[in-house]
Amino acid sequence: MIENNVKPNESGSIPLSFLKQDAAPGTASPWLLVLLHGVGSNEEDLFGLASHVPANFHVVSLRAPNVMGHGSYAWFQFGVSPQGQRVIHQAQEATSRRLLAETLATLSLQLGVPPERVVVGGFSQGGIMSLSLLLTQPQLVHGAMVLHSRLLAEVLPFVGPGAQLQGKQLWVSGGSRDQVLPVAHSRSIREHVQKLPLTLRYTEFPNAHEITQDELTGAMQWLQQVAT
């Protein structure tokens, strides 16, 4: 079970490799956006979005810990059962979630950004991890930005109490033409979190498994609203 009282690791080092863009000079009370890439990619992928992020945010893009190949990483491996269901490597997911929690706690401490000004966000498997972190470690973040992802049944036993989720912010978007993670998964997230005491912004876009300009613009507008 993942503990709910994660503390920065004692060495002060950041467990996961990353790229970083600082908030605009002179920003008072900056925020922090931590980005998580999809399976088979790396930290350079979503770091390309940094120029679109509101200027009052530090932006950190993390690399997943499981190596798939040269420049290719995953938060966890997965397969498909004979019945057609997705099956994840649960130990890898749990380890990645722990490392992610430790990384956020350490970044928050080192950058002087408290959890109430931290947002974690990701695409595809990175969005899965972002949602899982918000639900299981809500004390570490103010919100999550989840694009083209799904909710893991495996993390539901570890969801934090409603009192900890009160006031948290969640963006969920999916693509009506997405054949990798069909929009039904996004709708399933919506159905589940509507029962929780958090604030959800849900949007569907007419795109495939990709982040189009319209989706990016909407997500960044949401992010700016969250930080005001």
Task: Name the features.
alpha/beta; 24% strand; 6 helices; seven-stranded mixed sheet; 228 residues
**Roughly how many Å is the radius of gyration?**
16 Å
Record field, number of beta strands: 11
For the residues shown, what is the average pLDDT? 93
Largest sheet: 7 strands, mixed
What class do helices, strands and sheet pairing give? alpha/beta
**Overall spatial form:** globular
Strand ordering within the main sheet: 1-3-2-8-9-10-11
Topology as a string of helices (H) and strands (E)? EEHEEEEEHEHEHEHEH
Helix content: 25-40%
> What percent strand?
15-25%
How many individual helices? 6
Low-confidence stretches: 1-5
Amino-to-carboxy terminus distance: 35 Å
Task: Furnish the topology, listing elements before pairings.
Blueprint: E1 18-21, E2 31-36, H1 43-47, E3 57-62, E4 66-69, E5 72-74, E6 78-80, E7 86-88, H2 90-111, E8 118-123, H3 125-136, E9 143-147, H4 162-165, E10 169-175, H5 183-193, E11 199-205, H6 213-226
Any overview of this molecule?
With 228 residues, this protein is of the alpha/beta class. Helices cover 30% and strands 24% of the residues. Strands 1-3-2-8-9-10-11 form a seven-stranded mixed β-sheet, with helices on both faces. Strands 4-5 form a two-stranded antiparallel sheet. A two-stranded antiparallel sheet has the order 6-7. The protein starts with 17 loop residues before the first strand and ends with a helix.
